[in-house]
Amino acid sequence: MNATPSSVDKPKSPVRPRVTPVRLVTAAIVIAVYWWSVEGTGLNIVTLIEGLPNFGEMLRQMFPPDVGYAARLWEPLVETLAIGILATLIGSVLAIPMGFLAAENISHAAIYYPARMVLNVLRGISELIWALLFVVAVGLGPFAGVLALVIFSIGVLGKLIAEALEAVEPGPLDAMRATGASRWKVFLYGAWPQILPLYLSYCLYWWDHNTRQATILGFVGAGGLGYSLFFSITTFEFEKATTAILSMILVITVIDRFCLYLRKKII
Amino acid sequence: MVTQDPANSRPMIGLKGLTKAYGGGKPALAGVSLQIEKGEFAVVFGPSGVGKSTLLRCLNYLVTPTSGEVVIDGQRMGALSARELLKVRSNIGMIFQEFNLINRMSTLVNVMCGRLHGLGFLRALTYSFSREDHEAAITALNRAGLDDEDLYHRRVDTLSGGQKQRVAIARVLVQEPRIILADEPVASLDVKIQHTIMQLVADIAAKDGITVVMSLHQLDLAKQYATRIIGLSDGKIAFDGPPDSLSDEVVNKVFKIVDNKAVTADA
């Protein structure tokens, strides 16, 4: 230590204390949050253990699956696929202008905030709730499901597009502006080509997600396999429920594989 | 194409007290006033960070000045509507140090982007340029020294630096501009190509009667090609005159070189 005569203090220890007041308070808060969460959700290991026999009984009833039921699942299965495809197609296209309007570096300052707000609202309400609302509006069936997924897809993809746009290289944007191109042309020519691969990758992922969502929208009456599952559970036909669940797994696996294949192919 | 405005007397570019401050700091430009006549090849030189880029970007209002006036061919830029501003910009071509091409698009499409201002809605939306635009692009590419047809449909990110700047120049040519702004156009190129590109710009400007304003930090190039040199120092004009009147003394003053040591260059 290069101590000068004036410095009478001991040199500071290089070992930092590991227990500090801030860390203690943080730990206390974390423990409190978990405690409240346990209380609030009624998490109870005893109840779980007591419920296991019921679960075993249900599992016993679920097997063997009702293979004959599969024939009647064909139609809802196709419906599920259709909901996923349509919702992704419409949602991903409508998300483009929304993403453009919500990108700070390209959009107009007066439009940027409202566009962000709209995307937040679309995304802030879950697909199931949108589905419930659309069932009320357009009636039971897959159309309500498509609408619900379209709305949510716009919210999510719109935000992802906006963020991708905000991260593009600014140079080409300047070059397009300098030619006298209007804002949307600057977007279309300066920015869009830069984010296109990312956009396609988002769309593929979101198709996968939408198909998964489409399988459960039936629980609120918005079409697809979910309705068959919901129906067989509520009528205690568990062997049919198994068939429905297996169909869902099949659909999701196929889409998942296919998306993976496309991703490699396109990007 | 130069229209015959009643305007041989009025300057192509007029600046009055042009000031630009970013945030609260020292202004990049502090009251620049000057006039540039039609057909002049003006090089703005000075140490980096001195506001050369800002000055160029104020000319086409890519950067909005904090105060002062920019008059392009008789039109006060600050007084124009958004639509009129785009129109004026379409007559001002700009080339950049980093070329600012759209990497994922072909050479031809990149060149035709210079025509974005006049491109119709449906054509712009579908990335389909007219036959005339294609022909103009090919003519421009030839003039810019790219006559190899194999290059036309190649993605521009496969081109060399010199080729990229030629594409960027062709993009400016299809604008049929009255002014070319060039922001350090050769700084990213090797020495041999630097002269080729400078010669190209000088030839085009002389032949078409285009006014050029170029920022440049290489004085030898400036002296060789420019008809007028403007030295910027601390956001103000420190020198303005023909190349042969530029003495070492002035250069030292602009770059604040004392005893052969740059004091603030690159600061």
Topology:
The complex is a heterodimer of chains A (267) and B (267).
Chain A: H1 21-41, H2 45-62, H3 70-101, H4 109-124, H5 127-138, H6 142-166, H7 170-178, H8 183-217, H9 225-234, H10 238-266
Helix pairs in contact in A: 2-10, 3-6, 3-8, 3-9, 3-10, 4-6, 5-6, 6-8, 7-8, 8-9, 8-10, 9-10
Chain B: E1 13-20, E2 29-36, E3 41-45, H1 52-59, E4 67-72, E5 75-76, H2 82-89, E6 92-96, H3 107-112, H4 121-125, H5 131-143, H6 161-173, E7 179-183, H7 191-208, E8 211-216, H8 219-225, E9 228-233, E10 236-241, H9 248-254, E11 257-258, E12 261-262
Parallel strand pairs in B: 3-8, 3-9, 6-7, 7-8
Antiparallel strand pairs in B: 1-2, 1-4, 4-5, 9-10, 11-12
Helix pairs in contact in B: 5-6, 6-7
Major sheet description of chain B? 6 strands, mixed
Instruction: State Rg of chain B.
Output: 19 Å
Strand order within the widest sheet of chain B?
6-7-8-3-9-10
Terminal-residue CA separation of chain B: 42 Å
- The helicity of chain A comes to over 70%
In which range does the helix fraction of chain B lie? 25-40%
Number of strands of chain B: 12
Distance between the termini of chain A: 59 Å
What kind of assembly state do the chains in view correspond to? heterodimer
Rg from alpha-carbon coordinates of chain A = 27 Å
> How would a crystallographer describe the biggest sheet of chain A?
none
Task: Bin the strand percentage of chain B.
Answer: 15-25%
Structural class by sheet pairing and helices of chain B = alpha/beta
What series of H and E elements makes up the topology of chain B? Answer: EEEHEEHEHHHHEHEHEEHEE
User: Which chains share the greatest interface?
Assistant: A-B, 18 and 33 residues
What sort of overall outline of chain B do the alpha carbons produce when their principal axes are compared?
A: globular
Mean pLDDT of chain B: 89
Question: Which class best fits the helix and strand makeup of chain A?
Answer: mainly alpha
